[in-house]
Design brief:
Length: about 375
Amino acid sequence: MRRLTKKKALTLVKELDAFPKVPESYVESTASGGTVSLIAFTLMAVLAFLEFFVYRNTWMRYEYEVDKDFSSKLKINVDITVAMRCQYIGADVLDLAETMVASDGLKYEPVNFELSPQQRLWQMTLLHIQERLRVEHSLQDVLFKTAIKGALPAQLQSEDSSTSLSACRIHGHLYVNKVAGNFHITVGKSIPHPRGHAHLAALVSHDTYNFSHRIDHLSFGEEIPGIINPLDGTEKVTADSNHMFQYFVTIVPTKLNTYQVSADTHQYSVTERERVINHAAGSHGVSGIFMKYDISSLMVKVTEQHMPLWQFLVRLCGIIGGIFSTTGMLHSMVGFLVDVVCCRFQMGIYRHLKEAPLDVQENSETSVPPENYSQE
């Protein structure tokens, strides 16, 4: 009974075989079949190689959600050079709640406003990258992946040139509340005031006013590689002493998660405006550099993703099976068409040969020599 049961089970398994074997005596190998097989295997190898590169590649996924973090502080990273001496200018932040933020984290360093050739080359390269970013937005994904990080090369100052340093480099960071505010650099040092703050501009002569400036770096949040900020490398030069530069900045909280970097930071977009202060012409205001920023309520999540292994294997099987089936079907169709053409050709030759003797016989009967008639 057990043997019968095993035989029945084996018979049932054989009947379920979806890949029946064909005896080798019934298989015929042809040159055309070998050529098609060679082409199919080459296509499989090339497409599988390309698919492997697709598997190794990564892409950025962007998601948007409401920013629920409203209690933390916002870090402002500043590196600005102004074409005035450090004792004549002051920088601070005043937020929407009329809260003056202490500028203890900022350092004032006397420098030359003109850049060295190496620094100028770095600035031109940075401006070129930003110009390409405005046209090709996908370039930012490449920067995220590679985590490119660069800084302005240091400029060596000689001891004799210490007295000729007519510009001031303001660099450092500030921690402010996550509300709209105004970061500004204007004439005179800032002092506290019951209604906000004030600058001691009366002690500075108008002849020393020159708010030509260069923004080497301005960012919000944690400084991470792979982000080139819109104002980095910006340079403004003016010949008017009373000049106001305004930058309107919209800050977007960003959570970045790549294979190189994982951090919470901020990106921003900016529009700018500048005008000459002329009270007689109706252009009122205060000379200086003003950066009015506002924080978006939406947060952007940037995640670097990779094709999973199972999807790569499925696509690979699809390539191999698709090419194998397609080439087999094409080979069968081409073989069928060749057989039909050959059969038609052979039948045409056969008919031509079959009709040829009749024509020869008729020609022989009609062309009897004259000697035969004379003998008869």
